[in-house]
Design goal:
It comes from Cupriavidus numazuensis. This protein is of the alpha/beta class. The chain has 13 helices and 22 strands.
Length: 496
């Protein structure tokens, strides 16, 4: 770590300052961008510069891809148990340094410290899970079509995997991709989000300490995501691309990957409906909505975007929700007791402000908040809106902020149709105590993930992913390793 790269931050609170890396990780070495370029990482709470990291170019991305390719054969030839032992050491080191990793995450992302540490622990779970799951990559022996033949199916690593991760979960989205890739025997090149590269580099440092061989895990930071992404999608050495981010960018990457027919996993935008039927447990529904809507200041792809409340309970639910939202503590993410931090950057702040102002101008009622926060900067008041006209932009655009938009509905058929009236299909939620309704609605919602009487649905044990324009593939669970494996059929003749 070079002291000149660390500008201004609460880094004196770190127990292990060597976790604060400010260079690319390529071929097991920490290195600057080839042209010496840098870009600043900001603290979204204070808007001060935290550090400067490489503004990598296409040349740096190509070097990283080549390093991953060169390391691929030896890593793939290790036994799954040998790879698992390395991953397990990485998992243990992540947990051992959870407080420092949480501090780095909170400083660069703006997530409250307790929530940031929670993300680190959650992310470590993917490393542990896939360390074990890699040992359960099974093939098949298929009854042959002739007595002198034998049919065998084996699973082999895809090869070099290029991973592009978002800023809203800068630790967990990395482990959710790197864990299965390494367990499968792939090598990786990671491009973390421009706003949050420090968490990625800290994880890279711990991976080296865990014994991940040089070139197996490479990290390239950049202020030019399009050019680096272009290398990932065009270089024939890359055989797999995994991306979490917006649907717009995901479509572009998917089209670019067609030139070399790469395997693609996409976890894209969402427009989750959160439905509360009149027979629901209102206390449970309020608690579930608060966790779902206001976690990470509303900046999650599975956050409730449309909150649909049945007519008979609308007023009671609205009143309870306003009371809960009003109690949220907004403050410095590193301060004790903070529950809501700032939005990630100015663009995110301006978007939320624009969506709310548009809704108010069209006649929406502000039940709580609906304005910038007194703290200034990129802080926004936790907000509840009601009676929002259907033509308001906030009804169709992903909010990605601490704004709850309440809508009324009358019947089950009506609300399911409205929930499905979206090009997105990542997550959906509903609350009801009618067992028959629970089965009907869960099966009818056109999404990849359903929370039934539950607002917190993320776990390494279950498959995460969407349908329609919300993506392709699944992450986590036994299904999460499949996208990093090729299926090879071998026919043995002359046996009889």
């Amino acid at each position: 770590m070079e002291a000149s790269k660390i500008i201004s931050a609460p880094w004196d609170r770190l127990r292990d300052t060597t976790l604060l890396r400010t260079r690319n990780l390529i071929g097991g070495e920490w290195c600057s961008a080839s042209d010496g370029g840098e870009h600043a990482v900001l603290n979204p709470s204070s808007q001060q510069v935290l550090a400067k990291v490489p503004a990598s170019s296409e040349e740096d991305a190509r070097r990283a891809v080549q390093a991953a390719h060169d390391a691929g054969k030896e890593w793939a030839e290790l036994t799954s148990k040998a790879r698992a032992s390395v991953l397990r050491r990485w998992h243990d080191l992540i947990l051992q340094h959870r407080d420092d990793l949480g501090l780095i995450l909170a400083a660069e992302q703006g997530k409250p410290l307790a929530e940031s540490v929670g993300e680190v622990v959650y992310g470590a779970g993917f490393v542990e899970w896939f360390a074990e799951e890699g040992k359960r990559v099974y093939g098949d022996v298929i009854p042959p079509h002739a007595k002198d033949k034998r049919i065998v199916v084996v699973k082999q690593p895809v090869g070099v995997a290029a991973l592009i991760t978002p800023w809203n979960f800068p630790s967990a989205m990395i482990t959710r991709k790197v864990g299965p890739a390494l367990a499968a025997g792939c090598t990786v090149v990671l491009k973390p989000a421009e706003d949050t590269p420090l968490s990625a580099l800290a994880l890279g440092e711990l991976a080296l300490r865990a014994g991940v061989p040089p070139g197996v895990f490479n990290i390239v930071t950049t202020a030019q995501p399009a050019s680096v992404g272009g290398v990932f999608t065009s270089d024939p050495l890359v055989r797999k691309l995994s991306f979490t981010g917006s649907t717009r960018v995901g479509k572009m990457l998917m089209a670019q990957c067609a030139g070399t027919v790469k395997r693609v996993s996409l976890e894209l935008g969402g427009n989750a409906a959160f439905i509360v039927f009149d027979d629901a447990d209102l206390d449970a529904a309020i608690a579930g909505l608060m966790a779902c809507k206001f976690r990470n200041t509303g900046q999650t792809c599975i956050s409730a975007n449309r909150i649909l409340i049945q007519d008979g309970i609308f007023d009671a639910f609205s009143k309870r929700l306003v009371e809960a939202v009003r109690s949220l503590a907004v403050g410095d993410p590193l301060a004790d007791g903070s529950q809501q931090g700032p939005l990630i950057n100015e663009a995110a702040f301006l978007k939320v402000n624009r969506l709310v102002n548009d809704a108010l101008a069209r006649g929406a009622d502000a039940l709580e908040g609906a304005s910038v926060h007194d703290r200034g900067g990129w802080f926004y008041q936790p907000t509840v809106l009601a009676n929002v006209p259907s033509d308001a932009t906030i009804c169709s655009e992903e909010i990605f902020g601490p704004v709850a938009v309440l809508e009324r509905f009358s019947t089950e058929a009506d609300v399911v149709a409205r929930a499905n009236n979206s090009p997105y299909g990542l997550a959906g939620y509903f609350y009801s105590r009618d067992v028959g309704r629970c089965w009907r609605v869960a099966e009818a919602l056109e999404v990849g993930i359903v929370g039934v009487n539950e607002g917190s649905i993320s776990t390494e044990l279950a498959p995460f992913g969407g349908v329609k324009e919300s993506g392709i593939g699944r992450e986590g669970s036994k299904y999460g390793i499949d996208d990093y494996l090729e299926t090879k059929y071998m026919c043995f003749g002359g046996v009889a």
